[in-house]
Amino acid sequence: MHYTLxxxxxxxxxPYLISGAWLSFQxxxxxxxxxxxxxxxxxxxxxxxxxVFRSVVGTYVTFFTNTPQLVQIYFLFFALPEVGILLTPYExxxxxxxxxxxxxxxEIQRAGFxxxxxxxxxxxxxxxxxxxxSVRYVIxxxxxxxxxxxxxxxYIIMTLGTSMAAxxxxxxxxxxxxxVNALTxxxxxxxxxxxxxxxxxxxxxxxxxxxxxxxxxRVKSKVF
Length: 224
Fold this sequence. Notes:
Blueprint: H1 7-11, H2 14-48, H3 51-65, H4 69-79, H5 89-114, H6 118-126, H7 131-161, H8 173-184, H9 187-217
Helix pairs in contact: 2-3, 2-5, 2-7, 2-8, 2-9, 3-5, 4-5, 5-7, 6-7, 7-9, 8-9
């Protein structure tokens, strides 16, 4: 079978694909930030909260880490309208990814809290620090160097995971690749360019995270 590569037909859609990559980046960033807030509350609750709060957080984490993320988004998009809650495809994907990330970030941040020596917390209590002050001045400086690499890795995984948004009609990078493929019928070229854009986006994000880690927290890590 003879096949001649014709990237020219695909490259004229490059700006369209790049804007889709930017949307992928935005979805991952917003979901990660939302997940960080949920994860922080969840980690504090599981570490320092009462029995009821720990049970609620534990149930949430167990459910979202033991069911497929795609099924969770399907539930938000197709099941919630049955009870009158309508979400757009973008909202369903963003909420689903945020809730899923929040469960994993709860466990990641909780592991960081548990790594703080008890004597340091007791010292903070002795000088009259509140829980928030203890987190800000005692826990955070201690755990950030430990948590930064896994948090960065999760963000990269989430960026690649935005491709599932195409299933719901969100025109992020993969969704736009489907559109270009339908117009050009040049599948090899379309998805080669799409893969290259994902590679560039994740390498750029990894580089930025490494530089931020070194600059803000003196975390020694490498892109490759």
